[in-house]
Amino acid sequence: MHDKSVNLRIELFYWLGAAIVGIIAVAFAEAADLATRFRIFITHNHPWTMLFIAPAGITFSLWVTRTWFCGAQGSGIPQAIACLHLYDMKTVDHILSLRISIAKICLTCFGLFVGASIGREGPTVQIGASIMHAVGRFAKITNVSYKHALVKAGAAAGVAAAFNTPLAGIVFGIEELSRSFKQYTSGVMLTCVIISGITAISLVGNYTYFGHVHSINISTIGWIAVPVCGILGGLAGGTFSLLLIRISRGLPGKIGTFITHYPLYFSAFCGLILSIIGLLSNGAVYGTGYSQARDIIMESNGYQSYFFILKLIATLVSYCSGIPGGLFSPSLSIGAGMGEWLKHLLPHTPPEAVVLLATVAYFSAVTQSPLTATIIVMEMCDNQEITLAIMASAFLAFAVSRLLCSHTLYSALALIFLRTIDTHKPLTPPSSPVTITHTTSPLPSHH
């Protein structure tokens, strides 16, 4: 009886933690939208001020991150993946601390305000993992495997709450976070995703991320869009991932030396490039890209055919600056922008179908998680009529991307993140197939 009461108490902690993930994800989304509205007000009335706001804001964000919140940089998904392979719990406690999570929220919103092309979904993954990790510490969980299960559950719950797509959260936990499915993980993850999703729905309603797309029927000849979108999306997404990984590993020569020794100057340069691109696109490349992707998918507003190229460059520049922020929403908007361009070249396929196929293809190519990409796009648009075509485009893009970039983006970034901690000591016991390394020492100096 005593063991049952203890187990029930621990499960109640899990449920409470999952509900908190849902609440925080919704609050984060509202804060991000508020920051975006402030920036739109400025760019609408004084667009040229971004030539100062973007460089100064991105430099300040990087300075704050490096000085006080080391571990908050970047997407947040690589940090969650890294923590799934770390056995030094002191290091995990730092990376997944609530202090870092609060900073992640504030700095991501600030980045959106100053015009960075970043998303909030990746940071929500790290935040969800941090909350569930804190729950495990509060419940005095000592088993490392169960601690890892909580991290994975919190990360998956973060995806579910951020996109309002519970099924995608489950698949993301299996396909991206660990690429395996163990029994002790499944129950906790499923429960956390469901409770987090229900909490988010109760707060904001059962909405679809991009709205409802009406029924789409693709004719026989219209299926030509599948290989076109799959191949081009795979090439674009694979190239983006390859560039991001190589830049994150460090550039050679004088440029790499300059970035290493003068990161704040480099971030200011990134901000200047971003502001110039923003002026060229009339502000369309700033922020998450959510409204642009929604407009393109719903055909409520047209964008220039080169929008997706500018958005891709803006996203690459924003991420390489080193500030906190994710890639999910920008990747969706880049894919949608590619679809906006391709639909004029594929007149025999319904334009909304081309946009959806290009969106899922590019997203799948960047993340190399075709099932997650398929389910996210299906759930966000509430349309199952072209499920087979969406899945075919996603897997084709994944195959093309894999030819260009042999490592998945987030796993490669996780490895780079781990190497910034330590490159000398083994990450896992010898029996483990994982080959990346970790440290038993604290994170490097914040300075």
Q: In brief, what are we looking at here?
A:
The protein has helices at residues 2-45, 50-68, 77-85, 89-95, 98-113, 121-138, 144-163, 166-178, 183-204, 225-249, 253-261, 263-280, 290-298, 307-320, 328-342, 351-367, 370-381, 387-404, 409-421, and strands at 425-426, 437-438. The chain has 447 residues and is mainly α. Strands 1-2 form a two-stranded antiparallel ribbon.
Report the end-to-end length measured between terminal Cα atoms. Answer: 52 Å
Low-confidence stretches: 423-447
User: CATH topology of the largest domain, what is it called?
Assistant: Clc chloride channel
CATH superfamily of the largest domain: Clc chloride channel
Provide the CATH architecture of the largest domain: Orthogonal Bundle
Strand order of the largest sheet: 1-2
Radius of gyration: 21 Å
The top-level CATH class of the largest domain is: Mainly Alpha
Q: Could you say which overall geometry the principal axes of the C-alpha atoms support?
A: globular
How many DSSP E strands? 2
Number of helices: 19
Structural class: mainly alpha
Largest sheet: 2 strands, antiparallel
Sheet-strand content, in percent, reads: under 5%
- How many domains is the backbone divided into? 2
Give the SSE string.
Answer: HHHHHHHHHHHHHHHHHHHEE
Mean pLDDT: 84
